[in-house]
Amino acid sequence: MPKNKGKGGKNRRRGKNENEGEKRELVFKEDGQEYAQVVKMLGNGRLEAVCFDGQRRLCHIRGKMRKKVWIAQGDIILIGLRDYQDDKGDVILKYTADEARNLKLYGELPDHAKINETDNFGEGDHDDDIQFDFTNDASGKAGSASESSSEEESDSDDD
């Protein structure tokens, strides 16, 4: 049996990012592309994004980016639009926070785009505005629907 001369498998390279610190050239959108902000991560390489043209799209993370470029909620991305499906797109590039700020300075992104905040499009999506009433009744303990219904049943038995 031959002797192993390698240093192991892919787990050896897992923690390394070869070109993490490098400055890259700023990529602007072209025809058939649009800037967007991630609203929700859906799993299975898909996400929901709000494009800056005002439309919400279901986007697919391309294979070259999967498990190499981590995309989170609130990130600014560049998506490629599909000719045959207007409500879907493909993630081409993820912008860093510095690149997104530069795009905003150049006027590519609108002024209402929030770069570092994660919950920016969720005003109407969540049920956070539900109010609960925690007031106590006259006896000092919190009343519940089951207690009041049992009292009504006992009153009707007296008749």
UniProtKB/TrEMBL annotation:
Residues 1-15 have a biased composition (Basic residues). Keywords: Initiation factor, Protein biosynthesis. CDD domains: S1_IF1A. It holds the Pfam family eIF-1a. Residues 22-96 form the S1-like domain. SUPFAM superfamilies: Nucleic acid-binding proteins (SSF50249). The keyword Metal-binding does not apply. The keyword Protein biosynthesis applies. One of its GO terms (molecular function) is translation initiation factor activity. Residues 120-131, 149-159 have a biased composition (Acidic residues). Residues 16-25 have a biased composition (Basic and acidic residues). Residues 1-25, 114-159 are annotated as: Disordered. PANTHER family: EIF-1A. Seems to be required for maximal rate of protein biosynthesis. Enhances ribosome dissociation into subunits and stabilizes the binding of the initiator Met-tRNA(I) to 40 S ribosomal subunits. Belongs to the eIF-1A family. This is Eukaryotic translation initiation factor 4C. It comes from Capsaspora owczarzaki (strain ATCC 30864).
